[in-house]
Amino acid sequence: MVDSELMLGKLASHGYIITDKMDACDVAIINTCGFIEDAKREAIDIILKACDLKKEGRIKKVVVCGCLSQRYARTLRKEIPEADAILGVDNFKNVEEAVKSVLDDKSFYSVAPPEAIYTDKDPRLLLTPAHYAYVKIAEGCRNRCSYCVIYKIRGDLRSRRIESVLSEIKALSAKRKLSELNIIAQDTTSYGMDNYARAKLTSLLKKICALKRAHWVRLIYTHPRNFTDELIDLIAQEKSICKYIDLPIQHINDRILKRMNRRIKRRDIELLIDRIRKRIPSVAIRTSVIVGFPGETDKEFDELLAFIRDTAFERLGAFIYSREEGTPAYRFKNQLSDKIKRERFDRVMSLQQEISSRVNEGFMGQRLKVLIEEQDEGKRHFYLGRTQYDAPEVDGLVYVRSDKVLRPGTFADVKITDTLEYDLVGKAV
Ligand code: SF4
Question: Is the CB of 223 under 6 A from ligand 1?
Fold first, then answer.
């Protein structure tokens, strides 16, 4: 999303007109994902759709960029010659050159090892609703999880300078009234370990909060290994930081964690979660897990399931292990069948459904502060919103009934009157 916003910012600053209608443009730019099988398939479907539109003469050119083209540049060039330009992940730097070139009927190919990270000087055209924005504080990853191809696609950790992040936030908030800032990176807790030679996330967050430019500051993608007590205390004390912790554990069995190269053990994860829950009493913890990792036995999977049951994560996403070429785990023996992986995925998800229902039932009758997102499909008096425990796009919603008109981006006090598996229902009071 942020990369697309940077490309659009660059193009808009050169006078190009932006549309989101793929069949009504001169140049379709497809910013792809490519880190697991499903994402690759989806990206290829869209590229082929754009190429069909080009064949039918409804659009002129197709530009492919992002993770898939970074990873499979040569293959794409060979297999999809209808694509007029192929760019990698540093696409915001040369997208304008590429568009200009294809409009001059010259193909454009530029995929180099990733090295860029944007600064406050790069224009961005935000695609999020007017009341929130994402700010990417670092690019790439220094961890080497054995199943993951992201660091190969996006390169090693490159953190932005603190001043650049702060000045970007000032500029964003000067343009729109931000209710929520979402702080992202591939691994936010490693922020600063490259350019500052030590973890700098807490000092960055303190400075972001001191700016007072957004009511909520939400931290996303925090690797448990680098989650410090200082960070826990800051989240506990700082009013504007959402009491929401996105802590991808991926597994809990020590043998699997080791083979995943997560560089953390079950005991450390347990202690961390204990500390978080003790010091931030109302916290919602989100995690993600991978099921069907090569060699995962029934017993190891049961251990994961039992851990999920006992810990009762407020939010959880499960991924079916995707065997990615170029990763160490690709060569691991005992790759599991799709059937086993799918069964395990279904078992995790149905367990989480029960947990989520129970967690939501606990909110019955409570008054929660809800960020109003939009009117519910134009229905009068009905709105969709989120609590601080829900990140945009990935978590649940609150269906709000209100006699008064509620504007998107404002906060409402909502009394919860009903609960669903993943969502809440309430009335503005
Ligand atoms: S921390 Fe995340 S992005 Fe980095 S290697 Fe591990 S899974 Fe991949």
Answer: yes
